[in-house]
Amino acid sequence: MIIARNHDEPELKTIEIVPTTPERRAENVKAHEEWRRNVHWFGAHAKEIRDAHSGKCIVILGQELFVGDDPREVRARAHAAHPELTGGEYVMRLSIHRGPKVYR
Amino acid sequence: MIVLGEWRTDENGVLTPVLDCFLLGGSGKWLAVSFLIDSGAERTVLSPEILRDLDAPSQMSLDTLVGIGAASQVLTVSSRLRLQTVDGSEVIVNGPFFGLPQGREGELSILGRDVLGNFAAILDRPGRVIALLHGQHHYSIHEAA
Q: Which among B2, B53, B18 has a CA at the least distance from the CA of B123?
């Protein structure tokens, strides 16, 4: 639960549907499928990754794990290893917390 | 339009609703960010780590955020959020957004009702479906025969 106080902003952000070329749409679909594969791959290996790398930044690309401290550096390493993949990486910082989470 | 998310198993084995989005960074590049979908949050909030990685223009906000615990000072971050539909079309959500200057490591950025309110949001854990619908796409509820 998050409640904003003293805000004057409108309740909703505005959205725009932007023209997207067929080539760009195909690229986006491919990247999203890659992201889904990487999310599922993480889920299948979550506990072992957590136990080995808590507190670290991880990037999964090509269903391969990359670990480090600096997200930019880890992203760059992942993309260097998979130049054929232009997107779809799954990036997260592994929490060191072990109990249930409620976002403040 | 239909935007699909995923039920992700987190590092503690808990299923968490996430959406794959992109944020416009200070360099003009789009940064891939996975957001926690949180219908309890009034506002979308960027995590401290994403804020650092994004390097987008920001300033201290006059607003504060409250939840569990004390009120948090936040930054106002100039950025745009890009979603993509199932057919790869792009949708832009115009900022600015709130960002937390500091916090617990490992917290996801949060997609709140200021963005979600533009969509019919389906969070179906038993069916493992997460979908945001807008425009010509709608949902209907059927009783099983």
A: B18
- Please give the Cα distance from B32 to B20 (Å, whole number): 7
What CA dihedral angle connects A42, A45, A47 and A49, to 10 degrees? -80
ipTM of the complex: 0.86
pTM summary value:
0.87
Residues B89-107 pLDDT 10s: 999 999 999 998 887 666 7
Q: Which of A25, A40, A103 to mutate to test the interface with B (most CBs of B within 10 A)?
A: A103
Does residue B112 sit within a domain? Answer: yes
CA-based nearest residue in chain B for residue A20: B89
Kindly report the nearest CA distance between residue B144 and chain A, in angstroms.
30
Question: Considering the domain boundaries, does residue B141 fall inside one?
Answer: no
Domain containing B99 equals 2-133
